[in-house]
Amino acid sequence: MEKLVLRIHRYDGVNKWLQEYQIPYKKNKTVLWVLTKIKEEIDPSLNFTSACRHAICGSCAVRVNGTAYLGCKTAIDEIIETFDTNVLTFEPLKNFEVVRDLVIEWKPKVKKMKLVKPWLIPTKAGSIEKGFQQSEQEFSKIASPTDCILCGVCTSECEQLSVNDGVFLDPFILSKAYRFAVDSRDGSPEEHIQPVVENELWKCIHCMQCVTNCPKGIPLTDQIAYLRKVSMKMGAKGNQGARHAYAFYGDVKKYGRLNETMLPLKTDGIMSTISKRIPLAARMVYKGKINPLHFPKKVKGIEGIRKIYKYAQELSK
Amino acid sequence: MRYGFFPGCTLESAAEELMISTKKVANALGIELIELEGWTCCGASHIQDVDGFLATSVNARNLALAEKLGAPLLTVCNTCTLMLRTTKKELDEDKELRDKVNIGLRKSGLEYKGTSEVTHLLWALIKDYGLENLKKLVKRPLTGLKVANFYGCHIVRPPDIMGFENHKNPRSMEIIAEALGAECVDFDQRLACCGFHAVFPAEKEVMKLTAINCISPKLAGADCIVTPCPLCQMQLDMYQPDAQKGYSEDIEMPILHLPQLIGLALGFSPKELAINRHIVSAVPFLKESLGV
Ligand code: SF4
Ligand code: SF4
Ligand code: FES
Is residue A235 exposed (0-12), middle (13-18) or buried (19+ Cβ within 10 Å)? Predict the structure, then answer.
């Protein structure tokens, strides 16, 4: 390969256009190298952000050929190999406002992040004099979420955010809530979790984009599951998401299998199901897709499954 | 080839046509699918929200059943595959967790040892069965049929658990469709999420996604979407009339299960593959393109 063809989505605050550049290909170079090369040698008007070049500041994230990457950490060879092309198309991160070219606006996200109180609410156990000591095991709980560099990659690829009107909290905000809720030095986890529940926690669609693309390997979807679990322990069980999860939990205990006919009733309640889901149910019955009289039989070995449930319940105590 | 078959709950109810077509196709290809006796729901990515350890234990039990059979475990559902593979990875990498889970399993006479792999029919066809062998059995090449391959999230993401191919540009669906003689169209939403897992709490947003997921292949000129996941199929097919309500343009797009596409190329009729059970009818365009 001799050259790289770079197609960059440009924006000057009013107009949008696609601009093409060509530079010679070099082995072992990064996405950020490409952008810097263009800015320094071809077009100084190109705007993008970067600072540390060491995957620490989080400012160089950008979309290339349809997904977000941390520019300074990603080799262009990886992208060339993935898409089998020398044409790289650059866009700003999705689900952010765009300021200029590849530069995005963080202010609205920071404002939203404040909802979950991303700071320590100290326990009474510590003090300025004694400090706030933490065991290694306690620290290990926050080791991963504190790796977040606020690069915005998770937000860019989040498929719920792409269709949401902006209430759903970005994955890194959910992670931030988790990070303080599990910190042994924090005395009020509910204050971080309650706003998460109030802001569409259950709308995460399990697309796995956040956890897949996070350059720091933060287990975001596990953290979301944790937030949900604790929110239910805090008493927030009356919403559709929690009822849906409990329907699965209950059916497996009872039969070993899911009772799909009853699922809408358990999730939405009788009145809502009747008013909302009759046309759906009718077309499914008509096509033979569901049989309203079909109830799952208990699977072979159901007693063993119930023993597993009992054992898990004992452990969680 | 012999697998412990894990159908998953939907194949017993709303996606029974996938059970029918999977069995037909497996039989025609000479793949032996032995349904695991006493398998349970994989939790469909919901049980862990209530109790993560329980979700792991329930799937450890499913894996132990396959181990007892002495065969790899095969599913035709993306989410079942992800749940089972997640459990396997957790147990194989964490002895302490495995020991703890096995205390529970022993109470039901089972033990997780880690001897069975977990695969999806899509992967098994490529890796175990072989494309050349599949091609030899094609009786009715799908020439002229333009398919949009909709992967669904859980067959590619997260890659450290799924890992069959590059998650940013997978090719397995295209490879199979092309082996059957179909033409694959490229479309924006090829790797998108169908939204199924949040259709209750996020109905408005998921309907929007459904519409976008249908419009994108339509604009790319596809005759139909084909997917390896019954949940994607259900979301895009069953809810399409609801998603249509928010859009003035026509979003109509038939959605086929992967085994149905394969079955058509093997010479089965749409009825034999239960294609007539879909909400958005695929039969007219199949008549037009393939004369069936
Ligand atoms: S899994 Fe949930 S939070 Fe993560 S990207 Fe998808 S919708 Fe967003
Ligand atoms: S969670 Fe990961 S992807 Fe998201 S902002 Fe933090 S480091 Fe970036
Ligand atoms: S420049 Fe700082 S993370 Fe890339």
Answer: exposed
CB-based contact (8 Å) between A273 and chain B? no
Please state, in angstroms and rounded to a whole number, the distance separating the CA atoms of residues A36 and A46: 9
Q: Is cis: bond before B158, omega within 30 of 0?
A: yes
Within 8 A by CB and 6+ apart from A265, the residues are A273
Whether ipTM > 0.90 holds is yes
Q: How many residues does chain A have?
A: 317
Ligand 2 contact via A172 beta carbon (within 6 Å): yes
Helix segments in chain B, DSSP class H: 16-29, 47-50, 52-69, 78-93, 95-106, 121-124, 131-136, 172-179, 203-219, 230-238, 240-244, 258-265, 283-290
CB atoms inside a 10 Å sphere around CB B181: 16
The secondary structure of A161-211 as a DSSP string is TTTS-S-SPPHHHHHHHHHHHT-TTBS-HHHHHHHHHHTTGGG-----HHH
Of B10, B53, B241, the CB nearest to A283: B241
Report CA(A143)–ligand 2 centroid distance (Å): 14
d(CA B79, CA A308): 22
Whether the full predicted model's pTM is greater than 0.80, yes or no, is yes
Q: Pairing between strand A3-11 and A87-91? A: parallel
> Tokens for B249?
């343009």
SS3 for B107? Answer: coil
Cα B97 from Cα B92, distance rounded (Å) = 9
**Residues near A261 by beta carbon (within 8 Å), at least 6 away in sequence:** A290, A291, A292, A294, A295, B13
- In chain A, the largest separation of any two C-alpha atoms, in whole Å, equals 72
Residues of B in contact with A232 (CB under 8 A): 49-50
| pLDDT for A274 | 66
* pLDDT 10s digits, B179-226: 999 999 999 999 999 999 999 999 999 999 999 999 999 999 999 999
What are the residues whose beta carbons fall under 8 Å from the beta carbon of A260, sequence distance 6 or more? A290, B9, B10, B13, B14
Amino acid at A190: E
- Which one of B11, B16, B41, B102 would you mutate to disrupt binding with A, by most A Cβ within 10 Å of its Cβ? B41
β partners of residue A127: A131
pLDDT tens for chain A, residues 1 to 317? 799 999 999 999 999 999 999 999 999 999 999 999 999 999 999 999 999 999 999 999 999 999 999 999 999 999 999 999 999 999 999 999 999 999 999 999 999 999 999 999 999 888 888 888 899 999 999 999 999 999 999 999 999 999 999 999 999 999 999 999 999 999 999 999 999 999 999 999 999 999 999 999 999 999 999 999 999 999 988 898 999 999 999 999 999 988 877 777 777 776 676 667 777 777 877 777 777 777 778 999 999 999 999 999 999 88
| DSSP SS3 for A108 | helix
Q: Output the 3-class SS for A16-35.
A: EEEEEEEEECCCCCEHHHHH
CA dist A261 and A296 (Å) reads: 10
B2-6: strand order across its sheet: B32-35, B2-6, B73-75, B118-120
* Shortest Cα–Cα distance, A33 to chain B (Å): 22
